[in-house]
Amino acid sequence: MKKRWLCAALFALLGGCASVPGDTAQAVPNATAAQTRTMVDGRIEVYAQGSGPLVVMLPSRGRGAEDFFELAPYFVKAGYRVVMPQPRGIGKTTGAMKDITLHDLANDTAAVIRSEGGKPALVVGHAFGNWVARMTGVDHPELVRGVVIVAAAAKKYPAGLSEHVDRSAELSLPDAERLKSIQYAFFAPGHDAKVWLHGWYPEVSESQRMAGKATKQSEWWSGGAKPLLDLQAENDLFKPVETRGEIRDEFGERVTVKVIPNAGHALVPEQPAAVAEAIISWDRGLK
């Protein structure tokens, strides 16, 4: 898994990487276009790659766009343009970090979509990013053609899990302690959580946590009125089995539920090929 993390880092620099010998994950397809890095509105750093229908990817709490560097080539190969904005406080992205709500973060996403021409985008949000994706669907429906929520937590999930997310991003703790929380909260049994030992931003994590607390769940929960893919992980502690149908039960046929086997709350680094296949298949079915 360390090799996969290195591969992702090289991808950021070189715009592509080959398969990694000895890695248990499926090989990343070769990119068909180099990755670019630009600034939107002078304050939002955005990585982009490929051409075609627009896909915007929003990362988990306290983590950056690099989490999608291994996933993006699957979409590029399938004929999509992938844009991956850095959240506030990561890389060169700036903006208020205190006294903000999910509406502010959704406005950042909207600015990125407008910078790409304003055609409706598929907005993909992983874990905390799904809150922002759904808020974007509510606040900016004209810019969204569909919402994909990846490893979205249930409306109510087991107590204590959020503490493990906090500990995962607490860099003052020994790596061994952090790794225990990362393994428990994010990865399915048997998967090596070291791939997520790095890439955490404590101040960003806290800012996003407070933005979520400052926004009523009812304001973002629906994701708007566009089609929604609820992409779940089979071993996600944040999504107990009895809650798997809660979003579809509430919003009906506009919601599609897909469960990815052998994955936890991290999901994307665990099963990138399956994640890409599920999203692309669903999106093409919308047309």
Give a structural overview.
InterPro entries: AB_hydrolase_1, AB_hydrolase_fold, AB_hydrolase_sf. One of its GO terms (molecular function) is hydrolase activity. Keywords: Hydrolase, Signal. The chain has 287 residues and is of the alpha/beta class. The protein has one domain (32-285): Rossmann fold (3-Layer(aba) Sandwich). It is built from 10 helices and 8 strands. It is globular and about 45 Å long. The N and C termini lie far apart (36 Å).
Write the layout of secondary structure elements.
Elements: H1 2-14, E1 36-40, E2 44-50, E3 54-58, H2 72-77, E4 81-85, H3 102-115, E5 121-126, H4 128-139, E6 144-150, H5 161-168, H6 175-186, H7 202-213, H8 217-220, E7 228-233, H9 246-251, E8 255-260, H10 272-285
Parallel strand pairs: 3-4, 3-5, 5-6, 6-7, 7-8
Antiparallel strand pairs: 1-2, 2-4
Domain AB hydrolase-1: 55-278
InterPro entries: AB_hydrolase_1, AB_hydrolase_fold, AB_hydrolase_sf
Pfam families: Abhydrolase_6
Helix content: 25-40%
Q: SSE order in H/E notation? A: HEEEHEHEHEHHHHEHEH
Q: The CATH topology, please?
A: Rossmann fold
Overall SS class: alpha/beta
Strand order of the largest sheet: 1-2-4-3-5-6-7-8
Gyration radius, in Å: 17 Å
Total helical segments:
10
Low-confidence stretches: 1-26
CATH superfamily: Alpha/Beta hydrolase fold, catalytic domain
Kindly give the count of domains: 1
Q: At CATH's second level, what is the architecture?
A: 3-Layer(aba) Sandwich
Mean pLDDT: 91
Inertia-based shape: globular
How far do the termini sit from each other? 36 Å
Mind summarizing the main beta sheet? 8 strands, mixed
Assigned CATH class: Alpha Beta
Domain AB hydrolase-1: 55-278
Signal peptide: 1-27
Protein name: Alpha/beta hydrolase
Organism: Massilia horti
